[in-house]
Design brief:
Elements (H helix, E strand, L loop, with lengths): L1 H18 L4 H14 L3 H13 L1 H29 L27 H13 L4 H20 L5 H29 L1
Helix pairs in contact: 2-6, 3-4, 4-5, 4-7, 5-6, 5-7
């Protein structure tokens, strides 16, 4: 029990620290990242750019990214959020106004992070350069979710793990189907 209490204390401390970032960078970059990531607009736009300008590799990467994102969202929002009820971090910890627009759903896991990581991780095997480029906004989305007061760091970490699992599942599905049909 001491370990759990210690982890909870450390997570609360980290959440408070991240929420208190009041730099020009945090105020200038994170709100547009949140807007772009809302309803997965950022990832749909990235997929459209890849498909339009990347030839066959871009179309394959875009399809993999969209599939990964969809699986990540289902696993995080339709499965994990229904199994784990966790309150969002208390509003009092956040010195900025961004905390007012938080959703009412369970904090655990971060669906935004799951979608972002799943998209980037599903794109990377097909088009490594595009996957690396998608990693930058993916990290910003994860940071923004804690800074904004929507999630604890462990919610974001769980979302990232779900995103990686979703991308692995998308990558393995064709081989699994071929095995089943053989």
């Amino acid at each position: 029990m001491r370990i759990v209490a210690s982890l909870r204390r450390d997570e609360n401390r980290l959440t408070k620290h991240m929420a208190s970032w009041d730099s020009v960078w945090a105020r200038g970059v994170l709100p547009p990242v949140e807007d772009a990531a809302e309803h997965t607009k950022l990832w749909w736009a990235a997929a459209a750019l890849m498909a339009a300008g990347g030839g066959w590799r871009g179309r394959r990467a875009a399809a993999a990214g969209i599939a990964g994102m969809a699986v990540g969202q289902v696993l995080s929002n339709a499965v994990a959020k229904q199994l784990v009820e966790r309150r969002r971090p208390p509003k009092e910890r956040f010195p900025h106004e961004d905390v007012e627009g938080r959703p009412d759903s369970s904090s655990f896991p971060s669906g935004h992070t799951a979608a972002a990581v799943a998209f980037a991780a599903a794109v990377a095997p097909t088009w490594p350069w595009a996957g690396a480029a998608c990693a930058v906004p993916t990290v910003l989305v994860a940071i923004e979710r804690v800074h904004d007061g929507a999630h604890y760091p462990s919610d974001v970490a769980a979302g990232a793990a779900i995103g990686l699992a979703a991308a692995a599942l998308v990558r393995a599905t064709p081989r699994l189907l071929i095995r089943q049909l053989s």
